[in-house]
Design goal:
About 60% of the residues lie in helices and about 0% in strands. With about 80 residues, the protein is mainly alpha-helical.
């Protein structure tokens, strides 16, 4: 296993730690799973769908539900 160092706003990290405690998980485990999903995703739209499914499953204590995926154009609309 390799360590990864990232920079995160202190308030964001505090809120993430609180949420992780509520979900009985660690911020590290959550980010590792999201990163795995990101690495395994066939395209960018699947990355967002996978992250949303992980978040839904943890907050609802249920299996992930299908999540709408976005096109590249939708993601970059300003």
């Amino acid at each position: 296993m390799t360590n990864l160092t990232i920079s995160v706003d202190a308030d964001v990290l505090r809120r993430a730690r609180i949420r992780a405690l509520q979900r009985n998980e660690s911020v590290n485990a959550y980010l590792a799973e999201v990163l795995r999903q990101y690495a395994d995703a066939p395209d960018a739209s699947m990355v967002f769908a996978a992250a949303a499914q992980i978040a839904q499953a943890g907050s609802q204590g249920a299996q992930p539900r299908p999540v709408r995926s976005w096109t590249r154009d939708e993601l970059h609309r300003g």
